[in-house]
User: What shape does this take?
Amino acid sequence: MDNTKIGFVGLGNMGSPMATNVINAGLELFVFDAAGTAARAPRDAHIMEDIKSIATNCEIVLLSLPDGDAVAQVARQILATPQLQTRLVVDHSTIGVDAARANHLLLNTKKIGYLDAPVSGGTAGARKGTLALMASGDQNFFNQADPILAAFAKNRFYIGSEPGQGQAMKLLNNFLSATAMTATSEAVAFGDALGLDPRIMIDVFNASSGQNTATSDKFPRRILTETFDAGFTVDLLAKDVSLYLEEISKGPSQAIIAKSVGSVLKHMLSKMPGVDFTRIYQFTKEQAKVD
Assistant: This one.
């Protein structure tokens, strides 16, 4: 991998620290961000002026983009590059199953590989290099990219051979995370209204059957400290649960709980757009007063 030129497109809250860790691993990196590359680029990265510059220079291109439309647009620009060098695109965006399949087919028209590889762990995980990564596609692509992915994803899982399976894993994971946050917030708000100490409640949950990621991490580290700094907005979580609902509606499974969670997030999004999703506890308490 030492001689492989790597491109990174999308230097937002997740992409920038991920790209930084690629450089810190000693790999040569070419970067581009439509919102302004120079201001967002990690130190020592090669700043590119557009996607075609990335595709002209880089054999492997990593993407961290907001949605499926953005990924498809970048894929089309890669395909339109005259002196194309890119042979593998690794997509870390959360875009849904159908979008991943469509991008795989699109890139395959010029025999460019596509690895569907969303990540989980928030900005803190991206900075520390401890993200969980869920990859699907040709396993040879995964093996080829793995030394790069190790720079920012401590836990890397090969989910399956079909593009979209990584997306499915990410969406169901985030649905469970959203459910834990929503349910725990409601429970703690209920206990608080009855005079129970939130810190003691969290201690009891973590020593009992109510333990989950909200009780073990989000509440003690982000909510009770009032830092609300998980680095993942309610907008993104609402989008992920919405994508999960779209996918589950295509099959025989029911989405009873997901519909309830999605409704809460949609309501929160209308009242508190752009906030860290850990503020769902504040939102839950305020709604209890209104109701």
Summary: The longest helix spans residues 165-193.
